[in-house]
User: Fold this.
Amino acid sequence: MARYKLTLAYDGSGFVGSQRQTKQRTVQGELEKALREVGWTEHSVLIAGRTDTGVHATGQVASVDLDWSHPESDLLRALNAVLPTDIAVRSVEAVDAKFHPRFDATSRRYRYKVFCQSLRDPIREQFAWRVPAITADKLADAAKQLIGTHDFSAFGSPTTPKGTTVRTVTKAEWTQTAEDEWHFEVQADAFLYRMVRRLVFVQVAFAQGKFPVEVITRSLAKPAPAGKRSGFPSGLAPAYGLTLVEVEYKK
Assistant:
């Protein structure tokens, strides 16, 4: 019996999230079905982080204990042969028996795609959020405020009942990738529940001139008490624009 680290990619459109649920199609559920096809008999795989309904991934990480007497490359091919077309294993690596994809992670990186267009675009809107005109310079100004260690309670909820809302963001950048499209890359030691989608929503609202940047700065310096508004609109960017790109571990 050995422990394997699996790096996964999936189109989140057809899943109600990554975490296994009763009678609902999930990434974990499909992966566990495929593993049983290759002889896995354990109860549950471990996953680096929960992704919501509709969120995509190119670098989700899972681990599994499996009695496999063939090369790792054979396991990669065997799993991809039985997985549905909207999920794939990108790599398989034998790891230490104590490896935990969630608790051993040192950082996670997400990407969110936004584009500006007046008419609906059904193809692009599977993977990017269509918004009215924005001021690109304002997006950059907003992202700068997020770097560092802050209390992000205005942007998400803790992942455990008594968990901290303090997170350290090491990267927050907007890049224009086409005439009308921008990508937001954000990396942190960990994220609050729905934190990235909230960050994107607030930054886009700021870039549309709905409030001054000082509102973001104040929300990080002195979060509003529970139940109080933070000074910017409430809401979340749609899940379909978000992708979990990478989970990093100590070398």
